[in-house]
Amino acid sequence: MIILFVILVVIASIALGFIVLVQNPKGGGLAGSVGGINNQFMGVKQTTDVLEKGTWIFASTIAILAIVSTLIFKSASTGSGKNALENLNTQQPIKK
Question: Which residue, 1, 19, 69, 91, is most buried by CB atoms nearer than 10 A?
Answer without folding.
Answer: 19
